[in-house]
Records
---
Amino acid sequence: MTKRIRAIDPTVRVWQRSFHDRIVRTPREAAAVRRYIVENPARWAGGTERRDGHRR
């Protein structure tokens, strides 16, 4: 898929740097992931920018 996208526009970034899939194996892990998803936006409330352009 990346090759097809890059054939159309070579400047498009398809994959997120330093991103890794994770298999959630237990209900406890699933609960931790859900908690992270809910609580993470509060960590970004400062609105500062990181060097990679993402908000902190």
---
Amino acid sequence: MARSGIYKSEVVRARNKLLASGVNPSIDAIRAELGTGSKTTIHRYLGSPRFQCNK
């Protein structure tokens, strides 16, 4: 069965976890941390103006 998708909060949490570990939070690294998600969706969340303000 297909997953419904990933949420922005999951991407933010994965990004913060990678940063805390000293790992560059690339799209591939975030996807590996999540274990799912499309690169397009992750990129969209990372590039959104709202996300940029929450860094």
